[in-house]
Amino acid sequence: MQIGSCWFDMASGQLSNQENDTSWKMPASEHAILSLLANHRGQVLSNAQLIAVLPVAESSLARLEEAIDRLRFFMGNNSASLIESIDDQGFLLHVKLTRSHRFLSGTPGRSITKQQYLILIAQLILLLLLLYSVFEPSTKFLLHKEQFIQHSNGEVAYYPVYHSHDQQVVMAPQFEHLVNQLHQCDRLDWDKLFCSWSDDNKVMSIGLKKDGSQGLMLKNVKAIAQGRGFEFVNKQWLVDMEICS
């Protein structure tokens, strides 16, 4: 189902943002709320109706509002306005955007900006490699020496990217957890993996690069912290995000 710049796969609980080519395997609460809104698109649903579909342990107005905020955040500025708050009584998912931002197709991954976005990501990755191999790393940008994960189909180089020493102290354990889960994968079909976090440590971006017979392949996956961080990242999540198999 197309929701603004996003494709919502209701069956799998995955929301794909076509504007920046990122995917999010939604937690149960966010999935339940967006499914109910999508099934009643164009209708106002009360807070009580939406809270009723939340897991028992999370059935509260605060959790509902948090889930709505997370959905809007992932959908981005161009599509977040599709979810409208109605006088603190409930929420409405609009059928279409009132703005003129449109995409070429209602199928995932075919937006008019995807080509430009892939070129930008390629340039950023090449710039990171150039900065690290030629210049001394900046005090405001910490790109660590490449390390490798050995798999049956070869090795994958990975790089944690920190904005500061403070962020490195906080997020290094989260990165170690990611690497441990990558070791559990049966196969990794990428050459390089970059991992970075937003300034508030709530969003993790995983950039993937591969030089194959069909040319350069790039992928970016965004994950939003839950509870104590990114402990939900496991082998199954990595498979769902097509990072490994």
Report on the architecture of this protein:
With 245 residues, the protein is α+β, with helices and mostly antiparallel strands. It has 2 domains: 2-93, Orthogonal Bundle (Arc Repressor Mutant, subunit A), CATH 1.10.10.10; 114-240, no CATH class. The protein has 6 helices and 13 strands. The strands form 3 sheets. Strands 8, 9, 10, 11, 12 and 13 form a 6-stranded mixed beta sheet that branches. Strands 1-2-3-4 form a 4-stranded antiparallel beta sheet, with no helix packed on it. A 3-stranded antiparallel beta sheet has the order 5-7-6. A hairpin with a 4-residue loop joins β2 (6-9) and β3. α1 (28-39) packs across α3. The longest helix is centred in the middle third of the chain and has 21 residues, at 114-134. It is elongated. 26% of the residues are buried. This is CadC family transcriptional regulator. It comes from Shewanella colwelliana. The chain crosses the membrane at residues 117-135.
